[in-house]
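Final report, results section. Input specification for complex C-07:
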Amino acid sequence: DQQVKQNSPSLSVQEGRISILNCDYTNSMFDYFLWYKKYPAEGPTFLISISSIKDKNEDGRFTVFLNKSAKHLSLHIVPSQPGDSAVYFCAASGPDSGGSNYKLTFGKGTLLTVNP
Amino acid sequence: GAGVSQSPSNKVTEKGKDVELRCDPISGHTALYWYRQRLGQGLEFLIYFQGNSAPDKSGLPSDRFSAERTGESVSTLTIQRTQQEDSAVYLCASSLFPGNGYTFGSGTRLTVV
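Structure output:
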């Protein structure tokens, strides 16, 4: 039962254009969402997050949009740069039956390739 | 230390052997997590330590897996009688506050042959 889904295993864009990475979730208890970026042979690094009380969060070239009714979030990268080429993971957390809120549930990731 | 340190970075072991993976979290981070990523899959939660509280072991896939943490420092993940399906990258992360601001280590790539 995959609670966080990234349906595109890969995405290729031209340098300077917009990259849009998508993520869907099924658990309505999720209230905090994060994007991580991973280069080969390195651990994931935190990129940007959004709380369920917001529908948009922006940090430089990166913007995350949240559509709670559709249980969908997306990461926009504008303009895309070759150094953005990496695997991007969507993750979500929310209170469990005990009220704890520390586990992250990850998607399978999307490999972004930005071509010069 | 400056980051989360994991060792070894790579481990090849024979099926049936035991392995021990080590994680040194960021100093002062009370929360420590183990995840694993099998080929083509997302990160899978294994276990969570928070201070002196009882760990959340709900993600451990079988009783061959165990983990310990000494206070708020080093953690070891032990896999007994390894199987080929245990092959994965095992990632450790720590955070100052639970559920927020995870910093991951570079992982240990375990290959069971």
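The mean pLDDT of chain B is 92. The two ends of chain B are 33 Å apart (CA to CA). This concludes the modelling results for the funded period.
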